[in-house]
Recover the amino acids of this structure.
């Protein structure tokens, strides 16, 4: 489970977020990914976990009805389904965008989108257990790739590029923190997964470990990008980590490692998209009262393909959406809603207990 | 889902079972006390069976007792039956004392208790049972006035000597391989595991072939659920005949449609024995020199039995090499196609020049070139396998010349492609499990198509689809990719590396963890100086 | 079940069939014109407006079929003259924008231009003086470029440089790459600046970039060698913002390299004291800039440490005292070089050594008060240079070789 969430969060974060964070926090970007997002994500985790413990065998779509009543509960659960849908559309689009911008500009976006959705749909059809196993399988690959990129760029690092720390005070760092926070907050998918976990009691601890691991990895990557490309170029590049890989040059032969980044990115994003896809189907099936989530697969796949292929006209629109609109929206669903549901659930449950 | 489609297409439906056998006696019918009557029935049963021998004779009693021995020529062991049955009945009855004369009534009893020197003698009162015995190569003895027939267990059958395994040879390690007789095979395993806990349950499968299938496992080590599942699945097989264990393999697979072998097949008794020790179940099928081992995981496909016998450091190195080879065999042509046609910027500069030089003048796109070469290679392989050994070598020489030199010189393929294909071929030969290497070869073509259509992203998407498929696979309840997914570091002792034997403390956890410890953790090797009683040497 | 299956099959069919016209980005490797060196110039345009246009020239790798034994009697493909393996072709094109010029340059070739292997980007002096922002932006933006492309500036036209021929390696690109990657800074004549470093410095608010200087010479040594144009990388080009403002000569270049620090170098410093001559061979340089603000006054201090050996002496007995003397004099020489560089950069108003960068990093509050006039305050600031040259080896022989008079 920890592996799954780790891969899910990092798969897209590693490529997009260093640039977005560096645009705001410059050379302190690595601090921006380190402190605040982790705290926010821990709060998310706490709320999600507490909620899960109140209703150990229910998903959010089910217990929100218990907490908020039928109508409001369905509305909240439905909006979560939509939120996950938007998230996955973004993921699919990011995937296609990354490939077309960097590797295959002539290939139409919809081709990548539909293929990814097809593969992810297959995984979602197989169920969450298979997705979790996939994540476990590619996790070492994932780590190895990042490790290689970080290690091989050490000769090109200059720590001076990280100075001065905290230029412009703490504000830029806080501003830069929200984007990574919204990414870390994607662990909110747990609300739909907790009942299918073997030992839900241990989840809190395990996910916390995953969270810390993500923070460390992510900070290390951001740090590397900053130390090699400096704060300004990092902010200007769309995919600093990819550039890092292509910048590697050891003994004139170990070079052009972009292929590594691409493989790990594709594998990570398939896992991420699969899980989100599964969660979307599960949520929408439970909201609409359909017994088997597999019936929702095909319609939501179509939504994905259409949404991801035609919602944005170009890369910059996507980046702007990610930067300006997605972050607040994500934080509402990841942080605010669970934090609202938690006390309400606590009060409701206490009332019920006392009335009994 | 697909199975139903397939059934529809192939026109099979549950109503008319193909496995009907009208000629054989179906219902049980008791023997009667009249030998002539019994013989008549048996003659009817074995009508037109030229190899069934009815030997009628008389016991030298007074009055002479009519008797008949029935067996199948060359299926029953001739020397056994003549020495220990006929001889003892017809010649050695002088040993009987005066007060124990053979009569109609006590003949079966006395023959069995005092005369017949065979190791195992059974009785039978039923025609069906008797028929089965005869068909299995036993000798039936019918006696005048007795409704009980004696059955001498004399299975012989024809078989070959125990030879070195052909498919899985080793440099160091035992050199005996399974033969066609399951009794010999079980014995080979038993010799390695001399314990009463090694259970051998024999089932009969096949309406006509009546093949014996021995399910072997170590009681207390194995997961009982797995054994029950294996037996249930084997008993569920309703087919006319089992010609080879491969038939059983396809029947008991968890997933009917997969590229990967979900059952490990081996012709090595030592491999079978060590699998049993790990808590797996062995299935030994009569008339097949290949035993099946379940549950199988993906890793087992990459383990050669020699790994267990070589120095563990070397074995680990080879194991790692094999993992690399697996990836090469699966991916190398696909990556080559993807990089040379889509991602030229990913080649190191030095390589680019040489590949570009090699490609000058080649008339085909890289994909077609790769396809031609791979197909040629597969053709050569097939030709080499089909032909007798000495001719096969000639084929490989010709093939090597054609692929390696003539094609390059004629400018039809590039030399870099030849290297790629050769490497791929070499890599695919290092995979110890034949069925796994077949599946890798098929998948290679699929990935090549992915690479040709979408480059590296295509390859990766294909690989991910493959991974999803693999993650969904189970072999008798054990996830196929364990111990990687689900991750179980404890079970990694025999995967990427092989840890030394003295460090293989526990069995894989799928054995049910009933008896997880394999050895005394204190029992590792000790240097002479440190060999104290309570040394904490691990 | 059946209906779902049919729907699934239909979906699969649609998706698969949509890929039949696919293979969008497919390009066989032999269809590519692999550019190894790119030259960018501004030249007078032929159009009637009389505006300057971009001129892009490119060295294109021309893969030759690998020579086969037997002379290719059955190879119907061996076309082309007796060119060596990996001969490079030269193309030139002009246009109003860089990309237009790039299209123009390959107009006669059936192959597609591929910029993934450009190892050096050579900018002509005129283009560099007008500003390299457009070039750099394209370089960072266009996906085929890599950030490890070396940036070089040539006095004159870049096209002339590309006309040169390799002397040692089989292609000019390899030769330039090799020089830049591991030679020029170690012998102290130039510095390999790749586009990552260049763009970074260009983007940073507190430092001005330099780039290597490349020019064409005619090799004189061996008249039998047919090469009439070869390249030399020597010196540095100084930018003010994105505009070329001047060049560093040999001494100033050395000062710049000293300031950057260099490892496993072989830089000779001549020490002359009357008749006595010695060579101090620098092996390693470490340098540090310190920025200090005392009462609104900005002070900079450059601390340089060099480690080196003395192998060549004339009329000197190699004693510890003599070595100390050499150390002292070498320090003075190095110091004068660094000072020369500082003077030149002040003269050109380009903070190439990164003094202000250091100020930014360590004295944040002072930096924040500076604003856009930071170059002025740097020009007026006090700069001290301390050089500590050390001799750590004096070769294989002892004090001196006793050679009879």
């Amino acid at each position: 489970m920890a592996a799954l969430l780790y891969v899910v969060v990092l798969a897209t974060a590693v490529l997009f977020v260093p640039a977005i964070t560096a645009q705001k926090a410059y050379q302190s970007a690595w601090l921006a990914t380190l402190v605040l997002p982790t705290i926010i994500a821990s709060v998310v985790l706490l709320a999600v976990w507490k909620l899960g413990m109140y209703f150990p065998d229910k998903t959010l779509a089910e217990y929100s009805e218990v907490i908020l009543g039928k109508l409001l509960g369905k509305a909240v659960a439905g909006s979560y389904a939509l939120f996950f849908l938007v998230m996955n559309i973004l993921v699919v689009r990011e995937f296609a965008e990354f490939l077309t911008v960097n590797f295959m500009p002539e290939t139409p976006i919809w081709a990548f989108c539909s293929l990814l959705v097809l593969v992810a749909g297959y995984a979602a059809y197989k169920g969450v257990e298979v997705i979790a196993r996939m994540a476990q399988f590619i996790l070492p690959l994932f780590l190895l790739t990042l490790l290689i990129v970080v290690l091989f760029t050490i000769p090109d690092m200059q720590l001076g590029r990280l100075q001065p720390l905290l230029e412009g005070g703490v504000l830029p760092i806080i501003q830069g923190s929200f984007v990574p926070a919204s990414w870390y907050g994607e662990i909110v998918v747990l609300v739909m997964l907790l009942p299918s976990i073997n030992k839900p009691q241990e989840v809190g601890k395990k996910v916390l470990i995953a969270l810390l691991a993500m923070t460390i990895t992510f900070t290390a990557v951001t740090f590397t990008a900053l130390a090699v490309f400096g704060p300004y170029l990092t902010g200007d590049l769309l995919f600093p980590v990819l550039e890092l890989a292509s910048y590697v040059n050891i003994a004139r032969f170990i070079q052009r490692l972009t292929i590594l980044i691409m493989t790990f990115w594709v594998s990570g994003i398939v896992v991420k998209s699969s899980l989100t896809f599964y969660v979307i189907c599960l949520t929408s099936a439970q909201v609409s009262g359909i017994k088997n989530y597999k019936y929702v697969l095909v319609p939501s796949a179509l939504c994905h393909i259409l949404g991801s292929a035609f919602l944005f006209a170009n890369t910059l629109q996507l980046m702007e959406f990610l930067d300006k609109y997605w972050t607040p929206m994500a934080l509402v669903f990841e942080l605010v809603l669970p934090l609202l549901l938690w006390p309400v659930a606590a009060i409701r449950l206490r009332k019920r207990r006392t009335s009994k | 889902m697909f199975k139903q489609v397939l059934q529809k297409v192939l026109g099979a439906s549950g109503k008319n079972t193909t496995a009907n056998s009208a000629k054989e006696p179906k219902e049980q019918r008791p023997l009667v006390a009249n030998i002539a009557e019994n013989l008549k029935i048996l003659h009817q049963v074995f009508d037109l069976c030229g190899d069934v021998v009815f030997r009628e004779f008389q016991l030298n009693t007074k009055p002479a007792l009519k008797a008949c021995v029935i067996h199948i020529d060359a299926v029953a062991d001739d020397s056994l039956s003549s020495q220990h049955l006929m001889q003892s009945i017809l010649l050695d009855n002088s040993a009987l004392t005066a007060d124990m004369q053979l009569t109609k009534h006590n003949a079966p009893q006395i023959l069995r208790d005092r005369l017949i020197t065979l190791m195992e003698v059974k009785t039978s009162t039923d025609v069906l049972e008797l028929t089965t015995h005869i068909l299995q190569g036993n000798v039936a003895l019918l006696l005048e006035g007795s409704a009980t027939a004696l059955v001498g267990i004399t299975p012989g059958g024809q078989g070959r000597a125990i030879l070195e395994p052909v498919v899985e040879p080793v440099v160091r390690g035992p050199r005996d391989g399974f033969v066609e007789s399951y009794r010999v095979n079980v014995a080979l395993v038993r010799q390695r595991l001399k314990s009463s806990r090694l259970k051998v349950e024999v089932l009969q499968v096949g309406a006509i072939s009546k093949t014996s299938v021995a399910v072997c496992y170590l009681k207390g080590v194995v997961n009982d659920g797995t054994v029950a599942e294996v037996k249930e699945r084997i008993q569920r097989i309703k087919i006319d005949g089992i010609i080879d264990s491969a038939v059983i393999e396809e029947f008991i697979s968890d997933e009917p449609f997969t590229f990967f072998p979900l059952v490990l097949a081996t012709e090595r008794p030592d491999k079978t024995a060590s699998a049993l020790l790990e808590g797996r179940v062995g299935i030994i099928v009569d008339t097949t020199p290949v035993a099946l081992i379940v549950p199988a995981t993906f890793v087992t496909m990459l383990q050669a039995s020699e790994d267990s016998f070589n120095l563990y450091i070397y074995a680990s190195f080879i194991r790692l090499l094999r993992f690399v080879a697996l990836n090469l065999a699966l991916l190398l042509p696909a990556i080559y196609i993807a990089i040379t046609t889509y991602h030229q910027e990913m080649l190191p500069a030095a390589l680019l020049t040489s590949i570009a030089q090699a490609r000058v003048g080649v008339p085909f796109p890289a994909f077609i070139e790769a396809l031609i070469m791979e197909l040629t290679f597969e053709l050569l392989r097939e030709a080499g396998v089909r032909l007798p050994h000495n001719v096969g070598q000639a084929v490989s020489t010709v093939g090597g010349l054609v692929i390696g030199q003539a094609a390059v010189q004629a400018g039809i393929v590039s030399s870099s492609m030849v290297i790629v294909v050769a490497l791929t071929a070499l890599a695919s030969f290092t995979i110890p499990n034949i069925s796994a290497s077949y599946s890798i070869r098929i998948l290679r073509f699929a990935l090549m198509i992915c690479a040709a259509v979408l480059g590296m992203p295509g390859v990766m998407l294909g690989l991910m689809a493959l991974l999803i498929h693999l993650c969904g696979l189970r072999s008798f309840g054990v996830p196929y990719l364990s111990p990687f997914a689900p991750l179980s570091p404890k079970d990694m002792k025999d995967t990427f590396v092989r840890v030394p034997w003295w460090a293989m403390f526990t069995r894989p956890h799928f054995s049910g963890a009933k008896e997880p410890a394999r050895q005394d953790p204190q029992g590792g090797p000790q240097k002479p100086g440190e060999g104290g009683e309570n040394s904490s040497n691990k | 079940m059946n209906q779902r299956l049919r729907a699934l099959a239909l979906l699969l069919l649609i998706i698969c069939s949509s890929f039949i016209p696919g293979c969008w980005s497919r390009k066989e490797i032999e269809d590519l014109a692999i550019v190894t060196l790119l030259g960018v110039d501004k030249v007078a345009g032929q159009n009637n407006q009389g505006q300057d246009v971009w001129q892009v020239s490119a060295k294109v790798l021309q893969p030759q079929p690998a020579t086969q034994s037997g002379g290719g009697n059955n190879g119907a493909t061996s076309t082309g003259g007796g060119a060596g393996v990996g001969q490079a072709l030269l193309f030139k094109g002009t246009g109003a924008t860089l990309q237009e010029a790039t299209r123009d340059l390959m107009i006669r070739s059936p192959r597609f231009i591929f910029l993934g292997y450009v190892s050096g980007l050579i900018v002509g002096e005129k283009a560099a003086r007008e500003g390299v922002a457009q070039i750099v932006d394209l370089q960072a933006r266009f996906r085929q470029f890599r950030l490890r492309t070396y940036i070089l500036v040539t006095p004159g036209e870049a096209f002339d440089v590309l006309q040169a021929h390799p002397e040692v390696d089989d292609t000019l690109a390899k030769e330039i790459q090799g020089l830049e990657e591991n030679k020029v800074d170690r012998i102290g004549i130039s510095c390999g600046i790749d586009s990552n470093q260049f763009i970074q410095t260009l983007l940073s608010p507190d430092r001005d970039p330099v780039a290597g200087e490349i020019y064409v010479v005619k090799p004189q040594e061996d008249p039998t060698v047919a090469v009439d144009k070869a390249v030399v990388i020597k010196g540095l080009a100084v930018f003010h913002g994105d505009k070329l403002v001047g060049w560093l000569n040999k001494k100033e270049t050395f000062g710049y390299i000293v300031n950057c620090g260099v490892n496993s170098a072989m830089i000779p410093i001549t020490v002359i004291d009357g008749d006595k001559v010695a060579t101090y061979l620098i092996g390693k340089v470490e340098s540090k800039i310190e920025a200090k603000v005392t009462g609104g006054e900005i002070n900079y201090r450059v601390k340089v440490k060099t480690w080196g050996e003395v192998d060549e002496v004339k009329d000197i007995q190699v004693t510890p005292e003599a070595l100390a003397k050499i150390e002292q004099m070498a320090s003075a020489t190095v110091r004068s070089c660094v000072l020369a560089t500082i003077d030149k950069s002040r003269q050109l108003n380009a903070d190439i050594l990164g003094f202000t960068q250091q100020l930014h990093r360590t004295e944040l509050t002072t930096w924040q008060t500076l604003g856009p006039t930071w170059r002025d305050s740097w020009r007026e600031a006090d700069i001290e240079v301390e050089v500590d040259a050390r001799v750590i080896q004096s070769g294989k022989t002892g004090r001196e070789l006793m050679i009879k008079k």
